[in-house]
Amino acid sequence: MPVVLICLGVAAVILIAGLYFAGKHRLTVADVRYAYRGEVTESGDETWTMTYSQTARATTLRKQSGAVLCDMTDDGILLYQADAGSVILPNRYVLQYANDREGTYRVELFATVTAAEDGVLIEDGYRSAEVSGGVLYNGRDTYLFLEDVTLTVDGEEYDLPKLTGVRALYGDGIDICTPDGDAVFLETETTSVATAELSAGCVIYLLSDRVELAGGGSELMNSPSFSWQRISGQ
Asked: Which of 87, 105, 188, 211 has the most neighbouring CB atoms within 10 Å?
């Protein structure tokens, strides 16, 4: 049976219908947008469908006609709800470096992340958790920042609000999309350096997925895995 959730936005009603069948997860959305290489695409009143295939381990975004818009997994796409201030995750992510909890947590595909006064609210199936700061990472170059950050790329600084998505590709470029719908693609070289410092005191080197820890030392960003505990309320 489908599970239907109706969210009331500022100026529109956003309908999300989830369905599981034959090894696939499907989510139908409206009034959403995404950015790719600096270009924003909006659904408007059209209904789009996200389909995750367990076989391919990838999520595809299609128009109402069935035409493919993008491979959300390979392209590192995050889907923004236009009026609800929320992001829909197309794949499994991990939460790291939050201020109010230690360790790494798993967040499942099609979870929503919504801005809150003191952080964000993550709704993952029947689970929900308020989180202060940190970052969500897909293990494949895409970061969703859960706090305001300053991104520094080759000495240039960019102040980004929380729920900004950043995809950093070594030797190619950095894709940035804010929850306000602003998007830019910054071309980079193999010698480029891109960093973001979190309030927890660690510094993420986005083009190499490396993290300098607040107490000294460094480590690589963790990848999504069932070995991590699933996110839940404190």
From this structure: 87
